[in-house]
Amino acid sequence: MAEATRTADTSVILVCAGNASRMGGINKILMPLGSSNVVGHSMLAFEKCPDVAEIIVVTKPENNADIELTAETLGITKLTHITPGGDTRQKSVMEGLRLVSKDSQYIAVHDGARPLVRPEHIAAVIKDARVFGAATLGVPVKDTIKVVSDGLITETPYRPSLWITQTPQVFRKRLYFEAVDFAMEHGLDFTDDCQLVEAIGGKVFMTAGDYSNIKITTPEDRAIAEVLL
Q: What is the pTM of this model?
């Protein structure tokens, strides 16, 4: 028997409000990449995932027109809102959170500067979030990691237990709102959305992703992305 079609129940918050300080002032989300630009490839990956119901882009107001044009050119139908970000990543995500559809059951937060994420990996992490309540994409660390204090190595963590955390990070909506309320009440501000859930004792499943899901942070990363693309 064929598997029943699953209802699209996930709202994506695409975070594109950074200052690009390590890009020398270059607007990395609108940077040309392949046949489109960085944010275009990010939106397209979520457009192609059947589990995604809507895409909310959080960005600087001066990017709105270019993002709208990019979405129109690529045939993006799931983009519902473009909204200004906040002073920090967490505050930017919260701006997007205010626009999430009441019908959505899951929240997926993704770095707009990760344009090479694959639709099948998006589907996989959403599937795991449905089971565990929260999940994030990631890959095992390849190198030996050292903890250093004042220039001296103090610890060598057990490498098989170390993973590089990527995005999207997906959460059951009620759990994520509870975590956000806790952070606001206690004045906490995190750079990683999983930390919000961890702060209230929640467990986050690590879904195996792909090393090609890089974040474009420096000019060199764009060259690497072009090759991977």
A: 0.93
